[in-house]
Amino acid sequence: MNNQHSPTLPLALRALALLALIIVAEVVNGTVRTLALAPLVGDFTARQIGTVTGCVLIGLVAWFGSPWLKAGSPRAQWAVGLLWLTLMMGFEVAFGRLVAGASWQRLAEDYNLARGGLLGLGMLWLLCAPRLAAVVRQRRVSPDFMENLQSQKKRGQG
After folding, report:
1. Does 145 score more than 70 pLDDT?
2. Does 4 map to a domain?
3. What average pLDDT does the structure give for the chain?
4. What phi, psi does 100 have (nearest 5°)?
5. Which pLDDT band holds residue 152 (cuts at 50, 70, 90)?
6. Residue 47 lies in a domain
7. Would you say residue 75 has pLDDT above 90?
8. 7-13 long-range CB contacts below 8 Å, 24 or more apart?
9. pLDDT of 3 over the 50 cut
10. Is residue 1 part of a domain?
């Protein structure tokens, strides 16, 4: 029996590594938001803007990390998104309560869409990011996609 180990990391470890990168990017995003943006536009508006820039950062990590992640099936991509979502929600609560000293009410504000809180949408984006990155990458490089696009343009559908 051959018990040589695969030279690649298991999917869960690659997903955790990319999540760690997302967390670092989000901490930097939050620091810049708090120190530079909030004094200019106010805390709540800065948090809204920070959610949008955070989504961009997550999208970039998912896009560039997708080939290395190697989550080859939609099921695996959704599983990565669910792992990211679960761990990020835990991180958000722990960081918010223990480091930032935020109240439960203050944390909930960011998720209240009716009052302008966008973090719930950001978390939805985080859940979907691995799948969306894989789909967009696949369509971007798929010869079939390009052929379909060309034939639609010729028929006046594009």
Report:
1. no
2. no
3. 89
4. -85, -15
5. low
6. yes
7. yes
8. 8/70, 11/69, 11/70, 11/71, 11/76, 11/80, 12/83
9. no
10. no
Q: Is residue 35 part of a domain?
A: yes
pLDDT at 155 over 80: no
Residue 29 C-alpha from the chain's centroid: 13
At 50, list the tokens. 């920070």
Angle of helix 74-94 relative to helix 119-141, nearest 10 degrees?
A: 150
